[in-house]
Amino acid sequence: MRKAFKLDGDLCSNCAGKIQTAVEKLDGVNSASVNAMTLKFTLDAEDGKFDEALKQSIKLFADIEPDCEVLA
Predict the structure, then answer these.
(1) Does residue 72 register a pLDDT over 90?
(2) Which listed residue, 7, 8, 50, 55, has the most CB atoms within 10 A of its CB?
(3) What is the mean pLDDT of residues 36-47?
(4) Number of domains within the chain
């Protein structure tokens, strides 16, 4: 399953790269894209693990860049 989410807040490209790398390492994630310019987060994960991957991704956003929120 692949879904795109809007981001709200401040996000620099350095933090976007850190978040993207961390999300791609999560169990069940096929790919992830974090774009600081368009404030867009795209998550592609296995169907059965998508909800858990999204939950963990949102936590990573909060840990790495607390000024940026995933609008899920």
Answers:
(1) no
(2) 7
(3) 97
(4) 1
- CATH number for position 53: 3.30.70.100
pLDDT of residue 59 exceeding 90, the answer is: yes
Task: Quote the pTM value.
Answer: 0.94
70 located within any domain: no
Query: If you average pLDDT over residues 45-67, what whole number do you get?
Result: 97
Q: Do residues 45 and 19 make contact, with C-beta atoms less than 8 angstroms apart? A: no
Write the DSSP assignment of 27-61 as a string of letters: TTEEEEEEETTTTEEEEEE-GGGHHHHHHHHHHHH
Torsion of CA 25, 15, 8, 2, to 10 degrees: -30
**71 domain-assigned:** no
CA 24 vs. chain centroid, Å, equals 9
| Domain boundaries, position 19 | 2-65
